[in-house]
Structure formats: C-alpha cells, structure tokens
Amino acid sequence: MAEEPKTHINAAIIAGFIGLLWLIAIMVNFFITPPAGAAAGEEVQIIRGERITLAMDEWGFNGKQGGPIIEIPAGKEVEIVIINQGRNFHGFQVKAPDGSKLAGLDKDDTVDPGEELVLKIKIDTPGEYIYVCPVAGHEERGMRGIIRVV
Ligand SMILES: [Cu+2]
After folding, report:
1. CATH superfamily name and code, 46-149
2. CA–centroid distance, residue 26 to ligand 1 (Å)
3. How far, in Å, is the centroid of ligand 1 from the Cα of 27?
4. List of residues 6+ apart from 146 with CB closer than 8 A
5. Tens of pLDDT along 42-59?
C-alpha cells in the first residue's frame, strides 16, 4: 500500500506524456502538412514498380488531392506515365529536399488536357521525396504526393 502514491504519480506522468504526444501529433497535422497523402482515415494508395501511371486533374493525382505514394527502386531508370485528365495543363516533378527539381519536367514543360507523356526518371539516393505538379499554384491546391526511393 505504501507504493500506491508513487504509482499514481507515474500514471499521471505517463498520461501527461501521452497527452503531449497527442497534442504534438495534432499540431504537426495542422501546421506542417498540407497532407501529401490521403486525408485522415482514408487509405493511402501505394504504387510500386518501374512503370507508374498517374492520372492528373484538378486538383490531384489519381483522383485525390495528395496523390498516391509512389515507390521506385534507387539508381534505376523508371517510367512515369502521366495522363492529363483535367481541363488545365499539368506537369510532373520530383523535388529535392531543398525544393529544387530533382527529376521530371521543368516548370514550363506541361502536358495538355487529354494528352499523356512517358517520363524516364532515375533517382540515385534512397529517401522520401515529394512529387508535385510544378505549374504555379497547383501543388498548393493538392497536386502533390510522396515518392519513396528504396
Ligand atoms: Cu497541375
């Protein structure tokens, strides 16, 4: 019985810690993301392989703001087939951690509505990157997703 107050203190510390983690998770969710995956509760589609097909429209990839997670092998050339199913012109670019272009199209190279383009890209360094439509304003509207190089 002498142990009991201590146990309560430990339980309070643990509860506080869990609460803190929960708060941090909420803060991260609100302030750091515009989510590059699906919205909370939705299943995130993962596409793996050496030929990836992505449909683009307003404002997302494969019909979702925050497109699917793409997983490609490091150091190997893969094909990204981008199909513009929207009404605006769109593009595809993988960003380096500093925000510069790592692979894909330049900002001004775009695909017209109804058109498709096969891009060959190769990323040597494994990691998690962001892919976007580089047309001004489109990333902010939801044309972004995660690409994992493994
Ligand atoms: Cu776009």
Report:
1. Cupredoxins -  blue copper proteins (2.60.40.420)
2. 29
3. 28
4. 36, 37, 69, 70, 128, 129, 130, 131
5. 678 999 999 999 999 999
